[in-house]
C-alpha cells in the first residue's frame, strides 16, 4: 500500500547536509518525492512509497546527519500522488 507524507523538520537543519542526507536515505528506500529548505529555516520533505519504507524514513529524519539537531517534526499524511516519479532535492 502506497503512503504519502509531508514532514516539516525544525531545528538546526539547514547548512548541515540535511537535504543530501534525506535524498540519499529516500533513494535507498526507493521512495519518490522531494526535500527542500524553507525560508523559515525548516526543511520540508514530501515522501511517498510503501508504508514500511515511509516508517523507516521517519527515524532517519529525526536523527539527521551528524551536524544537524532536529527539535521537532510535524507530519501530515496525504493522498498518494501518481505524478511523483523519483526523489529530488528542490533548490
UniProtKB/TrEMBL annotation:
Enzyme class: hydrolase
Catalytic residues of the enzyme: 19, 37
SUPFAM superfamilies noted in UniProt: Acylphosphatase/BLUF domain-like (SSF54975)
UniProt cross-references to PROSITE patterns, sorted A to Z: ACYLPHOSPHATASE_1, ACYLPHOSPHATASE_2, ACYLPHOSPHATASE_3
Catalytic activity from the UniProt record: an acyl phosphate + H2O = a carboxylate + phosphate + H(+)
Transmembrane segments: none
Keywords: Hydrolase
EC number of the protein: 3.6.1.7
Family annotation (InterPro entries): Acylphosphatase, Acylphosphatase-like_dom, Acylphosphatase-like_dom_sf, Acylphosphatase_CS
Pfam families: Acylphosphatase
GO molecular function, one term: acylphosphatase activity
Location of the Acylphosphatase-like domain: 4-91
Family affiliation: Belongs to the acylphosphatase family.
Protein name: Acylphosphatase
Organism name: Pelodictyon phaeoclathratiforme (strain DSM 5477 / BU-1)
